[in-house]
Specification:
- The relative contact order is 0.10.
- 40% of the residues lie in helices and 12% in strands.
- The protein has a six-stranded mixed beta sheet with strand order 2-1-5-6-10-9. It has a two-stranded antiparallel ribbon with strand order 3-4.
- By secondary structure, it is an alpha/beta fold.
Length: 327
């Protein structure tokens, strides 16, 4: 979903009793500080509840929410944060009538996202069937067992499948919001929001790196040296063997360590880095697609076009046309 034009995109956060305040704050902070090059806000953020008023949180204070579900009717994007009830044992399809009715008010063309275990709300409403989704790693198995029609990915920080997005734990909501801003308005604006908030504009890998693991054995090393080398030589045709040599590990050990540290395989990580670099070059330079492909290690424009379509759903040229000179 690409948001353009001079009108601020309307974001509506649907909260429930037992709200986690940090998740609400993430949305308001990140989208609320996104501006174009003239200082105009790119988003308007509104909070609503199925029954407006004082909404209890998981802390020792409440949140006053004056808006009811009627504001969902004009939403461009609806975000559903987690609530305490999501951490209780779940039952397939369990969804209160007021929450179900609220979701039914949002436009059919609107974008929908969840933070952390808010994904159980989308699942119970039948909105994730046939889609890829994630949630907090402690709840992924339960989500997959209750809703086998959902392709649950426990390794990633967020998913984006045809206009419905889900994120992992609380802090992964930051990654999700920055991903939406980046997709709507390009890397420069997303990076500016990240800098203001003092968070990374993009975190490598997924939530697999945050799952509790045994203490590493003495001498167990990191893949940091191999990753640093790869980032300095993205324009070269790097192979798995190149990374193995830099890390001084076997192929099996390197692959295992990469999954632990980044959540993906070495070559998947390398492709991610090349895509990020290519997007920056397309946004900031007038270099031909073939030149960008050479500088980012894809080799040819044809190869880069294939990766762009697989990962972003658009061609490099269409991406550039969208994000050069955002108004």
């Amino acid at each position: 979903m690409t948001v353009t034009g001079g009108t601020a995109h309307r974001m509506v956060v649907l909260v429930r009793p037992g709200l986690l305040p940090m998740e609400l704050g993430i949305v308001h902070r990140l989208f609320g500080t996104a501006e174009d090059d003239r200082g105009r806000p790119l988003y308007s953020v509104v909070t609503c509840a199925p029954s407006p008023g004082e909404i209890p949180t998981d802390a020792d204070f409440t949140v006053n929410v004056p808006c009811g579900p009627e504001v969902l009717e004009d939403a461009g994007t609806v975000i559903v944060p987690a609530a305490l009830e999501d951490y209780e044992p779940q039952v397939r399809g369990r969804l209160s009538d007021d929450v179900r009715g609220a979701l039914e008010r949002m436009p059919a063309t609107g974008r929908l996202a969840s933070i952390c275990t808010g994904s159980f709300v989308l699942a119970a409403a039948g909105l994730l069937a046939g889609r890829r989704a994630t949630t907090h790693w402690k709840s992924c198995a339960e989500l997959a067992a209750l809703y086998p029609e959902i392709d649950v990915d426990p390794h990633v920080l967020y998913t984006d499948d045809r206009g419905i997005l889900t994120s992992a734990g609380v802090a992964a909501g930051i990654d999700l919001c920055l991903h939406m801003i980046r997709g709507d308005h390009g890397a420069d604006i997303a990076n500016a929001v990240a800098r203001r908030t003092v968070v990374p504009p993009h975190r490598d890998g997924g939530q697999a790196q945050y799952i509790e693991r045994p203490v590493p054995e003495p001498g167990d090393t990191s893949t940091a040296a191999a990753r640093a080398y790869a980032l300095r030589h993205l324009d070269e045709p790097l192979t798995l063997e190149d990374l193995v040599c830099r890390a001084a590990m076997s192929v099996r050990t390197l692959t295992r360590k990469f999954r632990q540290e980044t959540g993906v395989t070495p070559m998947q990580w390398l492709t991610q880095q090349r895509l990020q670099y290519a997007r920056r070059l397309l946004e900031r330079t007038d270099e031909p697609v073939d030149r960008v492909a050479a500088r980012t290690g894809f080799g040819t424009g044809t190869a880069m076009r294939q990766h762009f379509r697989e990962s972003l759903g658009v061609s490099p040229r269409a991406y550039r046309n969208t994000f050069r000179g955002v108004e």
